[in-house]
Write a structure and sequence with these properties.
8-stranded mixed beta sheet; 16 strands; FAD/NAD(P)-binding domain; alpha/beta; binds flavin-adenine dinucleotide; 6-stranded mixed beta sheet; 33% helix; 347 residues; D-Amino Acid Oxidase, Chain A, domain 2
Length: 347
């Protein structure tokens, strides 16, 4: 008789979330992480849980919405069991609107959000008030959405790890035997392995850099999204700034692109000019060839499954990714959209 119902390979947000969903269903889980919990893309600084725009509805947007709506109670449960804080808070988000065209588009999206977000969150247009935390907006108007949230990536993975241990999951750093079905949640390395296995590109790691500054007093303020920059206040008085996107890279260190990122943020929000930098970090986002989630059977390997493709929104979609994988692996219920399946997508 096996002592373990499920083995999870990889201790990033996907692997930890799959393990958590499984223990919540009563499964005995072994999680094997090669280097250390949060050693990959999940050990970063930003932690913006933000929605795609409410239009052009598709399976990825529906999946992301379901995950963002579940996140608050999901993280509350994890934190209650671990006794730690993930730093989760549904703070919302502000975005400036550059001109009349942007305002018109935002109004259309506000109407679509009324329908698509089922009244559970709003996307609305509000006037600027000129407060220091607000982004300057040439139109005098801002988008405010109440779906966006934030968490601290490092605290969140620590809270999940502690919650898993509290529930009796076995966590191995290094290597160990696999028992039962195996879910591979191995991020960028997993996409490389799948590429080698298939002999065609399944995805790749996309480098990103982020910076963090110290500016207490704004912990409960909404996060900001200005010209592609995420500015995210955290509960510990730091403000995270993300991120660069580098398809070509030769090393995983931070470099002058982090300087440029910080400078752009200071231009966009003058309040940040006096805030000292406290951290910078680079990681590899796992981007599947489809650019969407990669969830389902490992092609050609019986009893092996894949949970990957978090790319830029891995923390936001992890709860739903975990639910879909555990439904399939532990209960034989396949509710994974075919667009997400490695077999349908890659072969
Ligand atoms: C700069 C930057 C900013 C980001 N900002 C955000 C954001 O604001 N919001 C958001 O939602 N997402 C964000 N992301 C994306 C998010 O971090 C990723 O989507 C997510 O962390 C991917 O999680 P993962 O568990 O799939 O991969 P990883 O976190 O990389 O975990 C994979 C793990 O598997 C381990 N591993 C590899 N091979 C093996 C093996 N053979 N056996 C066992 N273990 C193995 C690795 O050591 C690693 O710990 C950002 C990413 C970057 C780089």
């Amino acid at each position: 008789m096996t002592r373990v119902d499920l083995t999870v390979q990889g201790g990033g947000i996907f692997g930890l979330s799959v393990a958590w969903d499984a223990v919540q269903r009563g499964a005995r889980v072994r999680l094997i992480e090669r280097e250390g919990i949060g050693a990959g893309a999940s050990g970063g600084l930003v932690g913006a849980l933000t929605p795609h725009t409410p239009e052009g509805w598709n399976p990825v947007k529906a999946f992301q919405l379901a995950s963002l709506l579940r996140a608050e109670s999901w993280w509350a449960e994890v934190d209650a069991v671990s006794g730690l804080s993930s730093g989760y808070s549904r703070v919302g988000r502000l975005q400036p609107l550059a001109d009349e065209a942007a305002v018109a588009l935002a109004r259309t999206r506000a109407g679509q959000a009324d329908t698509l977000w089922q009244g559970k969150a709003v996307w609305r247009i509000i006037p600027s008030t000129g407060e220091a935390w607000e982004p300057a907006s040439p139109s005098g108007l801002l988008i405010h959405d109440t779906l966006s949230a934030r968490l601290s990536p490092r605290q969140a993975v620590a809270s999940l790890e502690a919650a898993l241990r509290a529930k009796g999951a076995e966590i191995v750093i290094g290597s160990a035997a696999e028992e039962g079905p195996v879910v591979w949640a191995t991020g960028a390395a997993g996409l490389e392995a799948l590429t080698a296995h298939l002999g065609r590109k399944a995805g790749q790691g996309v480098k990103g850099q982020a910076v963090s500054v110290h500016l207490p007093g704004y912990e409960s303020q909404p996060q900001l999204f200005i010209d592609g920059l995420h500015i995210v206040p955290h509960a510990d008085g730091t403000i995270a700034i993300g991120s660069t996107t580098e398809n070509q890279w030769t090393h995983l260190d931070t470099d002058t692109q982090s300087d440029a990122l910080l400078e752009r943020a200071r231009q966009a929000l003058p309040l940040l000019r006096e805030a000292p930098e406290v951290a910078r970090w680079a990681g590899l986002r796992p981007r599947a060839a489809s650019r969407g989630p990669l969830l389902g059977l490992w092609p050609g390997r019986k009893g092996h499954f894949i949970a990957n493709g978090g790319f830029k929104i891995g923390f936001g979609v992890a709860p739903e990714a975990a639910r879909l994988i555990c439904d399939l692996v532990l209960e034989g219920r396949d509710q994974i959209p075919s667009d997400f399946k490695p077999l349908d997508r890659v072969l």
